[in-house]
């Protein structure tokens, strides 16, 4: 299991293109997913102030990409990292892309949660002042659910240690499959629910049982990423 902080810099302005990938997702059939031509890997981004690669930052976004996307922050995580940095001028803001397969059978969500949880534990130990914003898109939202200890959210994985829950200032997810069970983070986690924001577009089959897959792909361009960044920034201690 890979745990740690890569030195790659989050790249903005990615051009998103469709991938010829047919994924079988339990409960809602076969769909194509987007990948990215400009693949920004796990790494350090900057907020209002620059952060040296590998250094402790005031805030770190830990984000899990969606099914079928190449390793990195993904089509939702990249703009979220940029928006969060812009919302926190004067703070150093880094990002880490959860290392997991993002496989079409959804069974990689548990191992992804383990990577997310172990990474947070590692950085929290080395950087006692760092606050975390966690989240994910599509299967990456399931990764986040499992890391928060929500039962029945997917395959087995390690949860964030209870004594570190307070270091997680905000949770932001997009297209969360938990919604297919008519469940929310707010109703499933007394610890993380009060600081969670969930976005599910109308018609999204992944979180809302709709039949418009275009709705599942609309998060990077419909304003919800900016709303998520504003929500998370508002919960950062001292902001």
Automatic annotation (TrEMBL):
What InterPro entries does this protein map onto? AB_hydrolase_fold, Cutinase/axe
According to the record, the signal peptide region is: 1-22
Does the UniProt entry include the keyword Signal? yes
Note whether Hydrolase occurs among the keywords: yes
Going by the entry's taxonomy, the superkingdom of the source organism is recorded as Bacteria
Enumerate the UniProt keywords alphabetically: Disulfide bond, Hydrolase, Serine esterase, Signal
Molecular function terms, GO-annotated: carboxylic ester hydrolase activity
Which family does the similarity line name?
A: Belongs to the cutinase family.
Name-wise, this protein is Cutinase
The organism is: Actinoplanes xinjiangensis
Its lineage reads: Bacteria, Bacillati, Actinomycetota, Actinomycetes, Micromonosporales
